[in-house]
Write a structure and sequence with these properties.
The chain is an all-beta fold. 1% of the residues lie in helices and 42% in strands. It has a single domain, classed as Methylamine Dehydrogenase, Chain H (7 Propeller), CATH 2.130.10. The model has no long low-confidence stretch (mean pLDDT 97).
Length: 362
């Protein structure tokens, strides 16, 4: 990685922590919003704006942006559900968490998307000055079947905008599944064929699947990967059919975070745990798994990672990749970096708060 102007935005339980890439490697720079949970930190690659989604607990979700790499921040109104909207009968809809953020294409310079719990997608066409609920998804006939997993209600954690056609969108919802729109969010189709949810009466139910994170391969956006509650799944036909590519008898199965290589659609990484019931690394030893052949086989890498008395889990947004460099942060405040595609690791910090998200700026 030669661009020494890059920053690493770490959304954490105690603030937005910023690292800067220097000639000698990554170095801690500062923390903003000290003591406040930052659920998502994201940078808009179209204009360089940094965004911070805050979870104040008692005071609710707040949204801030910076046009000068965090030297000063400005608050804008966070998305809000229209009066009268309900999560379910008798339960008014309100934003409980800002859980995903994405920008429209280069042909949509003012467009931003925010995914929330309880399952609402919000869209702005004026650079975040205001957001509107995407009613077509919120009112989808299947929403009565959506339900919470690790959180009380269903939530949108993944938003994918096709760079070839920016009206082509995917969202990932826990627990509901993957939904696709070809018309900028006016209509939505369920794209869960091939997924499995072994906690449901019908494991192959069209609704109720639990993708933990969905990413597209930049080199071929028709290839998408998901780290799923019940395995690792891949599609090569734009979501029409998913294939379970979990490692048989190996660690690459349950987890939250997944990252796809920028050029090769057959390459992806996960940081696995034992299972949904035992959310710790296998044998209390942290590893990273990589596939180079579309999930037909997986390699396991451990060098430089703790291999004894380790309880680290990596949340769905806390794994980042750029060229040969990978970084991930954990629930126990560890931050690791690899410059050789995940085969060897170095520690950046053992003393951070719980890490919710990582984002690498250009």
């Amino acid at each position: 990685m030669k661009n020494t102007k890059r920053s690493l935005l770490v959304g954490s339980r105690k603030g937005l922590i910023v690292y800067r890439l220097r000639a000698g490697g990554w170095a801690y720079q500062k923390v903003d919003f000290t003591g406040i949970p930052v659920s998502i930190a994201w940078a808009d690659e179209r204009n360089g704006t940094w965004w911070a989604c805050l979870d104040h607990g008692h005071w609710g979700s707040k949204l801030h942006y910076s046009n000068n790499e965090g030297n000063s921040w400005h608050e804008v109104s966070a998305p809000a559900y229209p009066e009268g909207e309900e999560i379910k009968e008798g339960v008014p809809a309100s934003v409980r968490l800002l859980w995903a953020m994405a920008g429209g294409g280069v042909d949509q310079p003012g467009t931003l998307y925010l995914g929330t719990e309880p399952g609402g997608l919000f869209k702005s066409t004026n650079d975040g000055k205001s957001f509107d609920l995407v009613h077509s998804l919120w009112n989808h006939p299947s929403r009565g079947q959506w339900f919470g997993g690790g959180r009380d209600y269903a939530g949108i954690h993944s938003i994918l905008v096709d760079p070839r056609n920016t009206r082509h969108l995917f969202v990932g919802i826990s627990c509901a599944g993957v939904f696709e729109s070809w018309d900028g969010g006016e209509n939505w189709m369920v794209r869960n064929k091939g997924m499995k949810a072994d906690f449901l009466p019908d494991p192959y139910s069209e609704i109720g699947q639990d993708p933990h994170m969905v990413v597209a391969a930049p080199g071929n956006p028709d290839v998408m990967w998901q780290q799923n509650h019940c395995g690792i799944f891949r599609t090569s036909d734009g979501g029409k059919c998913w294939e379970d590519v979990s490692q048989k008898g190996g660690p690459a199965h349950f987890g939250f975070a997944i990252a796809a290589d920028e050029k090769d659609p057959d390459v992806a990484w996960v940081v696995p745990a034992i299972s949904d019931g035992i959310r710790v690394p296998a044998d209390q030893a942290l590893c990273v798994c990589r596939t180079d052949d579309g999930g037909r086989s997986w390699k396991t890498f451990r060098n430089g990672l703790p291999q004894k008395a380790c309880f680290d889990i990596v949340y769905r947004h806390a794994l980042a990749v750029s060229e040969n460099t990978l970084l991930f942060g954990t629930t126990t405040g560890n931050l690791f970096v690899s410059d050789d595609r995940g085969e060897n690791w170095n520690t950046l910090s053992n003393h951070l708060p719980m890490v919710y998200s990582l984002f690498l700026t250009n």
